[in-house]
Specification:
heterodimer, A: alpha/beta, six-stranded mixed beta sheet, four-stranded antiparallel beta sheet, globular, B: mainly alpha
Chain lengths: 270, 405
């Protein structure tokens, strides 16, 4: 428990989030702490012994071959998958079966999916307003106002009253980002956000993500957009066969990878 | 080359001749080869001969006295003659609702409203054995449609909730007037055993349709419950009801269930039958709903959970609405089949429309040869209702298609 209080950081951190983000990365608190995390599907070990600490405001790009456990790993951070061994602490809240902890963590963590997963029976703005109204119990007018602001932030204010099926893939994904942001999360998880998009739409989504990173959002992105990673990521994590093989800044990963498997994978995709 | 291709880029080239328009359609669908042309001609002759034969029978040969002299029996059964205005008032309420729908949503509702009014005017002015009061109430149908239409412009304008509320109220009031209220002069309760004909089919179908939605949804959700008792109770109910023919259930409810009641309690057959049909329909509805919800993409639930919605919120706001939309055709199919199944109540001695027809033929010597007229009439009545449901469902599907994935 002594260690928990240490990782809980905020106690001796400045109260103001903006003030924390003024500090250099290494002096900030750990917003995500994973220690010896394991996950099995039946007999298959999808994630093995992953330990990682993410600083507040840090952008970590996670990459690796398909089936390497990277999606499963970030899905454990808001418990769409349950970890079976090890511990996960999100913003000082331990991930347990306790419903209150789970609710608190889900409020802190927003998620964006490969297939967007917008609710097809609601307009774009209603997709965004749903959770603030139902989970945070914001009054309708307030939810609507902030939803409209979010749509402006992702660059499609004029699409508010369209249904998802009437939007392009890139627009849908931007609505999905706005929907996640509406809960004012501390952390955003991106699970291959551009993999289902046509090439000309990838940029518009990456631009939104760039802006988000610049605003100081803590982000975990599973993506193979290496240009984005080189430019935006503070650190990159290479997963293979369920294990975290290498973790380091983009300069190290691209120019001087410490592991042979990292080098081999990068040779294949670059 | 470029001189030729440049205009082509401005305006796309026209399709080859004889592939579009009426001629193109005929050619592609009816005369695409000499075999198909032959089949088309032969079938056209056969169908034309049959249609001409049917029409001439309907107009010339058939004796419709068996229908026109007994209209009330077919429509309301043995419901007392002096109270026949009560179902008619219920029809007026429905007509007014139709007028509201016409003004509010147009299209489909307008067709139904105009059609109903036209039929009412024709029936109202044809001289036959209609009592003056009943004739006036028939002729009041277009008026009721008009009243609804103008109410929709004012009281209901842009207020869908009021319309839904008024619809529920109208159905409730209509049922109350048909059944009667204790102690109100002129509205003495009728003997429910006298309710028959089309009114009986409609009432039973209405019970079944209205109750099977909520009960079916509750059963479907219960079946997915984490509580073993709830889950297994729902599974047992659904599987037992679905495993038994409706006729058997009707027999059991009529002849076996009353044995379990205390002797001094007697529940009307109409109610017992209505409840039986409700339960029967609910079990099928439950499986439809479950199927529809299972077809909702798992990503929907994940997105809802990631946003922090609770399990019941996810079900009510995300999976259930999408699941129900998935199964509109199946729901309407079930309603149509339920409406037709209500004619099975003859098995426990109730006089529905079909049974009323059979009884009319068999108990009147003068009508003994008029079976064809009676059953054609009954078939047309059933078809009008079933086709209307089917048509409305397709319109609803198209209207809801906006938000489709």
């Amino acid at each position: 428990m002594a260690e928990t209080s240490q990782t809980n950081g905020p106690i001796d951190m400045p109260e103001d989030k903006a003030a924390i983000l003024e500090l250099p990365l290494e002096q900030r608190d750990d917003i995500i702490v994973c220690e010896g995390v394991h996950k099995w599907f039946g007999d298959f070990c999808a994630v093995r012994d992953v330990s990682m600490r993410v600083k507040r405001g840090e952008v970590v790009v996670i990459f690796g071959p398909s089936g390497s456990g990277k999606s499963t790993f970030i899905r454990m951070i808001n418990r769409l998958e349950e970890h079976q061994q090890g511990r996960i602490v999100v913003d000082g809240i331990e991930m347990t079966n306790d419903v209150r902890n789970l609710d608190a963590i889900r409020r802190e963590v927003g998620m964006v999916f490969q297939q967007f997963n917008l609710f097809p029976h609601m307009t774009a703005i209603n997709n965004i307003m749903l959770a603030p109204q139902r989970v945070r119990h914001l009054p309708r007018e307030e939810a609507q106002k902030s939803a409209q602001q979010l749509l402006e932030r992702v660059g499609i204010p004029e699409q508010a009253d369209k249904y998802p099926a009437e939007l392009s893939g890139g627009q849908q994904q931007r609505v999905a980002i706005a929907r996640a942001l509406a809960m004012q999360p501390q952390i955003m998880l991106f699970d291959e956000p551009t993999s289902a998009l046509d090439p000309e739409m990838i940029k518009e989504v990456l631009d939104v993500m760039r802006e988000l990173a610049a605003s100081g959002m803590t982000m975990l992105c599973v993506t193979h957009e290496m240009g984005f990673a080189r430019e935006v990521a503070d650190r990159m994590a290479f997963f293979d066969e369920g294990a975290l093989v290498e973790l380091g800044p983009p300069t190290q990963i691209f120019n001087n990878p410490q592991e042979e498997r990292t080098q081999l994978f990068l040779d294949q995709i670059l | 080359m470029s001189a030729v291709t440049a205009p082509a880029m401005d305006r796309p080239p026209p399709p080859p001749p004889m592939t579009v328009g009426t001629l193109g359609w005929l050619r592609q669908n009816l005369f695409s080869s000499w075999v198909n042309s032959l089949v088309t001609v032969v079938l056209a002759v056969v169908v034309g001969w049959a249609v001409i034969g049917l029409i001439s029978w309907v107009i010339v040969t058939a004796d419709w006295l068996v229908i026109t002299s007994r209209v009330q029996l077919y429509l309301v059964g043995l419901y007392p003659q002096v109270d026949a205005w009560r179902p008619q008032v219920a029809v007026l309420l429905i007509s007014a609702l139709l007028g509201v729908s016409w003004r509010s949503w147009g299209g489909t509702a307008r067709g139904f409203a105009v059609g109903l009014s036209a039929v009412a005017v024709i029936v109202g002015v044809i001289p036959h054995g209609l009592q003056p009061l009943n004739r006036i109430l028939v002729l009041a149908i277009p008026v009721a449609v008009g009243v609804g239409y103008f109410l929709a412009a004012g009281f209901f304008a842009g207020r869908p909730r009021r319309i839904v509320g008024a619809a529920f109220l109208a159905v409730f009031v209509g049922l109350l007037i048909i059944r009667g209220i204790e102690g109100v002069p002129g509205l003495e309760p009728v003997n429910t055993n006298d309710v028959g004909g089309l009114l009986l089919n409609l009432l039973l179908a209405l019970f079944g349709i209205a109750a099977s939605m909520p009960i079916g949804i509750a059963l479907a959700l219960g079946r997915q419950s984490n509580l073993p008792v709830v889950k297994w109770a729902c599974v047992a109910f659904i599987e037992i009801i679905r495993g038994v023919p409706l006729i058997t259930l009707l027999f059991m409810s009529r002849h076996i269930l009353p044995l379990t009641f205390p002797e001094n309690i007697k529940i009307d057959t109409l109610y017992i039958t209505g409840i039986t049909i409700m339960l029967f329909s609910s079990a099928y509805m439950a499986e439809n709903v479950r199927g529809g919800m299972a077809a909702v993409a798992p990503g929907q639930t994940e997105a809802a959970r990631a946003l922090g919605l609770r399990g019941w919120q996810t079900t009510l706001l995300i999976t259930l609405p999408q699941g129900l939309r998935n199964i509109i055709p199946a729901i309407v199919g079930q309603f149509i089949s339920l409406f037709k199944d209500t004619s099975l109540v003859f098995i426990i001695g109730m006089l529905d429309l079909v049974e009323m027809g059979r009884v009319t033929i068999q108990s009147n010597l003068e009508f003994v040869d008029n079976g064809r007229e009676v059953y054609l009439f009954i078939a047309v009545v059933f078809w009008i209702f079933c086709f209307s449901m089917s048509y409305v469902s397709r319109r609803i599907e198209r209207a809801l298609g906006v938000g489709k994935r």
